[in-house]
């Protein structure tokens, strides 16, 4: 074997193995989807092929096809050996097949909602919770704040997002996908005109029975999605809170069967990475808030009665009852909002003690926002995992102390 052939095998070997493993995993997903959709599998796949053409997924497949064609031309014209030719072309074909098989896999769930980062986080939870079934969405990538997501989950979002590059075609795709999926999940926590329109179309098409609506409270009496018309006879509305969504889907037979992202090794690495980032940022929050108590005393000496009372109440809120990490994770959003309200009310204070307090609180606010960003960039469910981890650690410590 010549050095060129050895180099080709060394470079292409891992790519071939990775593509083969991915195709094996995809075959499992196709089989599961076949059982779910029954006779609609291939018609749905054909529709998916037409829908993903003008998307980022289709663009990637076209690029790979061009690379395969270019590699074929180079090896043929360059007089490469048979081994080099077969390996290069085979690698490109396997990668292209993987991209196509992944792209046209019919979805089991269509996720609808506002193009915000919260919807992408919900998508991540769904993907983990119903694997091997596919979840698709149609969100505007520029509106979902890429910086809030880890590279791994941004990649998952891109493979699930079938929003076409032409923004005026989203309605045709959404209403078309509705006809082919087994279940529709619509996030109505943030209402827009588009979400309301989708909600109305679901009712008109008679798809309420296979739709799950998400509201913050899961209140069955909520007028979800702004629908004013009565529910058609024979149809019911299924409204759940975000935390109950996976449980509701499990009742319908869609539950996770060892998703790759739930692999203990991968999950452990992700958890450690997120833990290091958030712990580092939590320390900065603590350091920024250190001078607050003394600065409040300074303001009290100058007679700032109402400001001091508000600042003391805010400090008590930030410190919490236990002053522990568990409470920080549970109340992070509330703490950020409380600091914002205080700064809005007292940010224009002019005397020096009040200005020093405001400046210190602005630093605390900045660090709290950076902590929130670190949490947002972790994998979906990280906060719940971290709280469980901390609670277990506390329980173990208590058992160690007790005789």
Q: Can you offer a commentary on this structure?
A:
- 65% of the residues lie in helices and 5% in strands.
- The chain has 403 residues and is mainly α.
- The chain folds into three domains: 3-103, no CATH class; 109-260, Rossmann fold (3-Layer(aba) Sandwich), CATH 3.40.50; 264-401, no CATH class.
Helix content: 55-70%
Low-confidence stretches: none
- Profile the largest sheet: 5 strands, parallel
CATH architecture assignment name of the largest domain: 3-Layer(aba) Sandwich
Number of domains: 3
> Looking at the structure, what is the overall shape?
globular
Main β-sheet, spatial strand arrangement:
2-1-3-4-5
Strand content: under 5%
CATH class of the largest domain: Alpha Beta
Mean pLDDT, as a whole number?
Answer: 84
Q: SSE order in H/E notation?
A: HHHHEHEHHEHEEHHHHHHH
How many angstroms separate the termini? 69 Å
Write the layout of secondary structure elements.
Blueprint: H1 3-37, H2 41-52, H3 56-77, H4 82-103, E1 109-112, H5 117-130, E2 135-137, H6 151-160, H7 170-178, E3 183-187, H8 193-204, E4 211-214, E5 238-240, H9 245-251, H10 264-289, H11 292-301, H12 305-319, H13 325-346, H14 352-377, H15 382-401
Parallel strand pairs: 1-2, 1-3, 3-4, 4-5
């Amino acid at each position: 074997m010549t050095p060129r052939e050895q180099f080709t095998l060394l470079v292409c070997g891992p790519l071939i193995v990775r593509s083969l493993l991915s195709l094996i995993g995809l075959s499992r997903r196709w089989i599961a989807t076949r059982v779910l959709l029954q006779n609609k599998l291939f018609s749905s796949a054909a529709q998916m092929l037409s829908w993903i053409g003008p998307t980022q997924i289709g663009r990637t497949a076209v690029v790979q096809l061009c690379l395969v064609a270019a590699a074929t031309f180079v090896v043929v014209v360059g007089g490469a050996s048979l081994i080099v030719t077969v390996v290069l072309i085979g690698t490109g074909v396997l990668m292209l097949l993987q991209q196509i098989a992944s792209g046209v896999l019919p979805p089991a769930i269509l996720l609808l909602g506002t193009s915000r980062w919260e919807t992408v986080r919900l998508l991540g939870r769904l993907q983990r919770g119903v694997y091997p079934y596919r979840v698709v969405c149609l969100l505007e990538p520029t509106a979902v704040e890429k910086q809030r997501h880890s590279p791994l989950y941004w990649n998952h979002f891109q493979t699930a997002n079938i929003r076409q590059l032409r923004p005026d075609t989203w309605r045709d795709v959404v209403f078309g996908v509705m006809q082919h999926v087994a279940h529709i999940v619509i996030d109505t926590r943030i209402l827009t005109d588009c979400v309301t329109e989708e909600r109305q179309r679901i009712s008109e098409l008679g798809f309420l029975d296979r739709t799950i609506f998400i509201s913050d409270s899961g209140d069955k009496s909520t007028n979800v999605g702004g629908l004013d018309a009565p529910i058609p006879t024979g149809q019911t509305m299924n409204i759940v809170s975000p935390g109950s969504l996976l449980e509701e889907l499990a009742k319908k037979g869609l539950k996770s069967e060892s998703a790759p992202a739930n692999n203990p090794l991968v999950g452990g690495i992700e958890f450690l990475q997120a833990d290091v980032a958030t712990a580092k940022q939590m320390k900065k929050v603590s350091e920024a808030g250190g001078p607050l108590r003394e600065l409040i005393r300074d303001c009290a000496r100058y007679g700032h009665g109402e400001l001091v009372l508000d600042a003391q109440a805010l400090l008590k809120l930030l410190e919490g009852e236990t002053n522990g990490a568990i409470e920080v994770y549970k109340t992070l959003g509330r703490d950020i909002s409380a600091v914002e309200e205080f700064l809005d009310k007292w940010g224009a204070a002019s005397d020096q003690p009040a200005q020093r307090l405001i400046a210190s609180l602005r630093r605390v606010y900045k660090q709290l926002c950076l902590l929130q960003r670190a949490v947002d960039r972790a994998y979906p469910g990280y906060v719940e995992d971290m709280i469980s981890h901390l609670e277990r650690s506390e329980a173990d410590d208590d058992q160690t102390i007790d005789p």
